[in-house]
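Predict structure. Chain length: 224.
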Amino acid sequence: MMLIELTGITKRFKNGMEYKNILENLNLQIHQGDSIAIKGKSGCGKSTLLNIIGGLLPFDEGAMFFNGIDVSKLTESQRAEYRKDNIGFVTQNFHLLDDRNVYENIALPLQYLGMSKHQIKDRVEEILHDLDIEHTTKRTISTLSGGERQRVAIGRAIIKKPLLLLADEPTGSLDEETEESILEIFSSLHQQGMTLIIVTHDDTVSKNCQHIYKLQHKELHSVY
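Prediction complete.
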C-alpha cells in the first residue's frame, strides 16, 4: 500500500535578496513497510526533505500525499495532528529533556495523547524492555552514554507506534559498536512492519535499508 507520495516538490529559501531552490521538482513514492535511506552531501537538502515529509516544513510547489491525504491542504493545527498521529522523529542530537528522567522522556508523547497513567506505565515498561534500557528508568539524561541516549530517543519516537519513523543521522555521534546496536533496533522495527526513512552519510547505515536514494542537484535519484 502506498503510504507517501511526493510529486514535483520544490522548496526554496531566501538567500539575501533572492530565493534559492534547495529541492526542485522532486518525486518519491514510499510503500508501507519500506525502509529508505537518503544520502547526499552536507547542505544538499536531506534534512529539509525529512522535515517536509514529517509535516514540520511547508513546501512551495508540488503535492505530498500521506495515506491518500493531501498534506499541503491541511491547516497548521491539522498538520500538528498529522505529526502526532503518524510520525516519530529521531535526531543525531537526541533532543531529550534534561529536566526529566528516562521514564518521563519516553512517556511524554503518550501524555500528550491523554492516555491513562496505567496505560502509559505498561507501554513505557514494554519499550524499556525491548530497547534493553530497563536499568536506566529513573536516571537523568545527563548520566547516560551516547548509545543510551539514542535508545531513549528511539523509545520516545516509537512509543505511540507511529506509521512512519524519520531518523536524521541517528548514528552520527556514536561509536562503531554502539552504531551496530542501534542499527539492530532499526532492523527489528522494520521487521515489525514500521516504515523507516533514514537520512545518513554512513554506508553502514544505508546498506541496512531496502532502498537507497541520493539527493543530488536538488533531485532524488534511486541507487537501488
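Summary: The CA atoms of residues 91 and 214 lie 19 Å apart.
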